[in-house]
Structures are given as structure tokens and as C-alpha cells.
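Quick note —
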Amino acid sequence: MKNTIVVIDAGGRGSVLVDKYSQSPDVSKIIAIPGNDYMEHSSKKPVEIYTHLKTTSVKEIIEICKKENVSFVDVAQDNAVAVGLVDELLRNGIMAMGPSKLAGEIEWNKAWSREFMSRHNISQPEYQIFDDTETAIAYLQKQKDQSWFVKASGLAEGKGALPAKNNAEAEERIIELQKFGDSAKTFLLEKWLQAKTGLAEEFSAFAISDGKTFQTIGYAQDHKRALDGDKGENTGGMGCSTPPLVIDKNIKDQTEKIFKKTLDGLKIEARPYKGILYLGGIIIDRKVYIIEFNARWGDPEAQVIIPGIKNDFFELGEAIINEELDSIKIETDNKARIVVAGSSNGYPGDYSNVKGKQIFGLEKASKIPDVKIYGAGIKIHSNKFYANGGRIFYVTGEGKNIHEARQKAYKAMKLISVEGNNLHYRTDIGWRDARRISK
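Predicted structure written out below.
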């Protein structure tokens, strides 16, 4: 039997999921909501997109699923989880892969998430939760001068964590955070973790859970800052590499225990978790602390981890939905990958003057062996490509090691441009591991 499946996402993460589902012989058609114009270029099956809808257009999504006799829906986007799309789909007899609204609160309410971690003895930074700026600033003024992270409790497109080097800067960040509106009505002050030995390194880890059992799928290292050398503003992610060489057996063992504590804790609190759980961690003196959890694949981490998974994604989705994950062994190809985000000049700030500018070189770049291009903010008109977002596309290169993967990805990036010299990308993705290998 041929199946139609739905992917709820618009960007690079949705594009790689569409590509992966399209490789299954059991899938005949994919619907992406909202999707993006470039998805069909990276799919082996027909893709139907609904770019006029949002990931939170619950009523319309349910109507489409019923009309198209959809086999299941992969809810891959944070806002969709937060509005309870999975719950509503199940209520309407439509199979869905992804966490319920209650289980997904581990992402969409960072204050709740921190308190959950405290209840379940999960290592994390010291934190304080606030509902008004005056109380937070008064608290700060009583603290010794130090570094902080000021974080919106709600969803802020991956940009709601503002670093501050000292108390005065933290006060400024508290005011600045209010630009996120309702997402920052509740916010957190977190003490910046300091390493004694010099090792303080972030990483992402991913587990897949059916509510009963789980398996860890992979590890990656995101590059959040806009500019080379990890400088500039925080973004949704400018690139990523896998596998990070900082992850040894000790770190894997700690991560596995944290996943178990977290998923067991959610079960105990009557919030069984189905789907992908993203652990954002930091290694401080060889100990793992949790920066955050996300209730879905990361973007751009998905673009390096998903291509390396050898399992049929339709079968994997069914196993999660039917609580039969213990019958499947996750297999990976063990290749190194990096992904580089091609963004509009000005991102993550104002990039409005780049919208509508033509993109050149995508087709030529996509022909390089071991390179894959995933669309995000791309519009196609009369077979020409135009910029239509902050992060426009992603170039993934693969190889036997990080050097080889980087060489392929950047060879492809050099072939691509945006009219008016309006393409921006980091040239140092994977720099930590490239340096480790060189040593």
C-alpha cells in the first residue's frame, strides 16, 4: 500500500525530512505544511506545499489530512507542538508523530522545564525565574558581578537567549528581551557556567522515543552566532557538524542517563513523550549540564544527522506511533557531515532589502558529489530562484572525516550567490574538530 504523509515545517529541517520520507518505498506522496518551493528539488516523490498556511493552522491541517487520507503526520516544528497540534490530530483519528502539548512543554515553557529538571535532579545552571523587569533588575543589583544568560521562557525562533558578560550588560539584555513580546513575559536569569580546566563546549544530542522506550540517534555541534569566530548575534543556527569529536564514551554515558531521567520523569508526571527529543548540552570540566531541551529535531542539526540514518523513515514513524520502537535498531552510516546555512545579508536583523533578489548557482552546486542542498527561504518563479527569508538554504557536505566534509560543502557554497552580493555565510563551520584533527 502506498502512503501519503504530512511534514509540518517550512525550513531546512522540513526539507531534509521530506527528502528522507521520499526514499521510502511505502511513501507515494508527501504534503509539507507550509513547506517551501525548493522541497521538490530534494525529494524523490511528489511534494505538495501549502505556503499560505502556518504550522499552527490546526483546523486547515486536519481538513487536508482527512481529504488526502493521510497515513500519518510528522509534527516537526515547535509552534505546532506548543498549540497542541498532535493532540488535535489524534482527537480527529489522524495518526501523528510528535509530542503532546503537555510533553512538549519541556521546550515551549523554559521556566517549567527548569523546574522539571530541578524536580528530577538533572544537572543545569543556577537560575531565577521572573515575571517583571523591575524585580529582575533589583535581584541583579544584589548579586556579585558575573556573566549571565537572559532567556525568554516562551518560543523565540531560537533567538531568545541573550548573553551578558556582566551585571550591567544583563540589565540591558533584560530590557532588550522584551522585543520578544509574550514569549518574554516570563523570563530567566541563568548563571554562565565557568570551566576550571578551560573545556566548556556545547553540543546537541537527539533521542527518539515511543513513550515507553528510547534510543539515542546522534550528536552534533551547532554554530549559533552570525559571524566567524562565534561572534555577532545569536541566530537560529548558521551551520552544524557531526559527529563532534568532543563526545567520548564518558559524555555519551552521561547523556544517555540524562535522556533516561528526562523521559522517565515525563512519564511519572503523566506526560509520556513520543517523537524526537533534542538535548542542548554543555560540557564543563567533563560534566554535562543542560542548556535546554527542544521537542523536535534541531535546525540545522537535522540536516547533518538525518541523512546518516539508514532506517526507512516511514517504518520508523510507524514504530514510534505504535509504541514498537524496541523492534527497530537505529543504524547510521558513520560518515562525517557539515552543513552551512546560506543567509540573507542582515540576518538575524533586518534583511528586508534582500527579499526578492535572485539566487544563482544552486543547480550547479547540487551536482557536486556528496553534496545535498536543502531549501528554506526560497521562492521559485519561472524556474528561477529568489531569496524569501533570513536563512535561505543549507549546503550539506559529507565525507570520511570533517576535513573532507568541509571541503565539499564550501566548494559548493562558492558556486552560489545572491544578486547584489547579498549572500552571507560563515566560513568556519566545524572549526573545533578541524583544529582537533590538524593537531
